Amino acid sequence: MEKKKGTIILFPFMAQGHIIPFLTLAFKLEKKGYHIIFVNTPLNIKKLKLSLPQNSSISLLKIPFNSSEHGLPPNTENTDSLSYKLLNLVSSLIEKPLCVISDLFFGWSANIAHEFGIFHVIFSGAGGFGLAC
Questions:
Q1: Tens place of pLDDT for every residue, the chain, 133 residues?
Q2: What is the DSSP letter of 36?
Q3: Hey, what CATH topology would domain 7-132 get?
Q4: Where would you find the membrane-spanning parts of this chain (predicted)?
Q5: CA torsion 17→18→19→20, rounded to 10°?
Q6: Chain centroid to CA 122
Q7: 24 near 36, Cβ under 8 Å?
Q8: Which uninterrupted H or E stretch holds 9?
Q9: Residue 106 backbone dihedrals phi, psi, to 5 degrees
Q10: Which of 35, 80, 103, 120 is catalytic?
């Protein structure tokens, strides 16, 4: 089996309009020989499993989130307190990732990446015109 170039963590916002472009990016990076860790909430990970080809090496990592603990209805997802949970997930990895690619809405993920000495990139699936306005 071919040795991977390194690990890249992808952390999109928890909405399909953000997850889908990140998944496309994940497939492209996987083809280039990188190991991809795709981080999201349990319900989204469950849906993503159905989107991955059987031969994919993309790892799906659940960020712990129990909506009932936050006063939300069951199976509702929100982004409160995710920064602390991402910090724990990154620190538990055996191999240090090359970089973290996060959604535009997760600016705090840069602090976590820098804390571990990891390169950080913001990715947006939005069109250029919308971002320029």
A1: 567 789 999 999 888 888 999 999 999 999 999 999 999 988 889 989 998 999 999 999 998 877 777 666 566 554 545 566 667 777 777 678 889 999 988 888 888 888 889 999 988 887 777 767 6
A2: E
A3: Rossmann fold (3.40.50)
A4: 6-27
A5: 50
A6: 11
A7: no
A8: strand 7-11
A9: -110, 55
A10: 103
Give the E-state strand segments of 12-132 in sequence order. 35-40, 59-62, 99-103, 119-123
In the numeric block, which tokens belong to residue 32? 């280039």
Contact 44, 29 (CB under 8 A): no
Helices 16-31 and 42-51, packing angle to 10 deg:
50
CB of 65 closer than 8 Å to CB of 82: yes
Is residue 18 flagged as an active site residue?
yes
How many Cβ atoms sit within 10 Å of the Cβ of residue 95?
Answer: 10
Instruction: Write down the pTM of the prediction.
Output: 0.72
CA neighbor of 10 nearest in space, from 127, 132, 118? 118
Left if phi > 0, otherwise alpha if psi is -120 to 50, otherwise beta: which for 31? alpha
Amino acid occupying residue 28: K
Two tokens at 126?
């939005």
